[in-house]
Design brief:
By secondary structure, the chain is mainly alpha-helical. It has one domain: Butyryl-CoA Dehydrogenase, subunit A, domain 3 (Up-down Bundle). Strand 1 and strand 2 form a beta hairpin. A three-stranded antiparallel sheet has the order 2-1-3. It has four helices and three strands. Keywords: Membrane, Transmembrane, Transmembrane helix.
Amino acid sequence: MSHDVPPAGPPSQPPYAGGPSRGSFDPASVNKLDWAILGIGAVVLIFSFFDYYSWDFKGYGINVSQSWSAWHFSHGLFIAWFAMVITVLSAAVLAVSLFVPTVTLPAPPRMLSFVGFAVGFVLYLIAIFAHSDFGPAGGHAFSFWISLILAGVGAVIALMRAQQTNTVLPGRLNSLPRVGR
């Protein structure tokens, strides 16, 4: 006489349509520096909607004020927009690799993230000088400077994570001195 013995443990249920087929996501499993990179990308995106450039003129009975966000493309301001987009995409690449590991990227995600943040930082530096002259009453506004700083910090943190995970960087970048521990 034979009979089937049910497996030990709770009965398994097939995943519902469109649902996950594996365990739930644990935010604690993501490294704190990776969270920092994702946060930097989000903050840079938020600041892109505020004043990147401003111009104020007061004199001769005239009071004129104008400001532009990163989404303004004339007068050479396109470079700051491009720097912001690359910086945000660099964080998005890391997010995809962390939260959707089944997606295949064209290169290692940590390398893409580091190179993107570094390129974004360099473009922000170029944007300091590559716009039309606003005259003595105009220049870069608060959000531009915050985004520039965050892109630099993001590049350093992304380099740290690439080195911690032994990610091979392109060319001479692979011989950069180790940052952090």
